[in-house]
Amino acid sequence: MAAINLKDIVKRYPDGFLAVKGVSLDIRDGEFVILVGPSGCGKSTLLRMIVGLEDISDGELRIGDAVVNDKAPRDRHLAMVFQNYALYPHLTVFENIAFPLRLQRGQFSEDEITAKVERAAKTLELQDHLQRKPANLSGGQRQRVAMGRAIVRDANAFLFDEPLSNLDAKLRGQMRTEIARMQRRLGTTTVYVTHDQTEAMTLGDRVAVLSKGELQQVASPRGLYEQP
Ligand code: ADP
Ligand code: ADP
């Protein structure tokens, strides 16, 4: 777990388009920050720069004590949870969670993998479902498997990119509750991108409102309404 500090972050795409125009934001260790704004305002660009999938044109990005502008995604130790949870349907819950560890070929023994997966599963209350396949899980359980895959690698932070946007309203409501509960339980620094006002107002400690590549406001969900 770590704090994430953005200082005057700029993104200019190769065609010259200025998608992020100097964003500064200090995310505390363990804090849950929602990044909200209309489609095209630069949310994904900002998240992709944090995770390292997109170059930063200008400014400074720190994770913990280190400036990471030039670090590869793998060295930032961030766990991105994507829109469709990208679970492997033919693998059990155990193997889905173990997958990132197996990718790092030879780094972990079978005993270590088992210990890490079981610990993650316990944290996420999945210990009774380890031998099941994703198709036999509820939406909330699948979400937790995706998070298990993220935490098994000891991530500094979770990054969510509109994780609920493909779901129907009922499931979305359940998942909101689930995500908020898990984040409180894990206490992991979280940046959560959405264009959904309800998610913005109910999930996080603070809401950062982005418009046309600039931060308009950063406030607690309640504070957003109280400000003029
Ligand atoms: P959001 O996630 O808020 O919908 P994005 O970060 O995806 O917004 O996009 C922000 C702006 O940057 C948009 O106007 C988009 O068209 C533009 N953009 C995104 N990717 C590229 C790219 N590769 N080249 C040029 N412009 C881009
Ligand atoms: P590899 O290159 O190890 O075969 P990938 O191309 O999937 O595997 O991932 C490259 C690096 O990107 C990984 O070592 C990991 O640190 C990081 N990475 C992979 N998936 C994620 C994710 N969901 N969120 C954040 N970082 C990831």
Automatic annotation (TrEMBL):
Domain ABC transporter: 4-228
Keywords of the record: ATP-binding, Cell membrane, Membrane, Nucleotide-binding, Translocase, Transport
An example molecular function term from Gene Ontology annotations: ATP binding
Name this polypeptide is given: Sn-glycerol-3-phosphate ABC transporter ATP-binding protein UgpC
Gene of this entry: ugpC
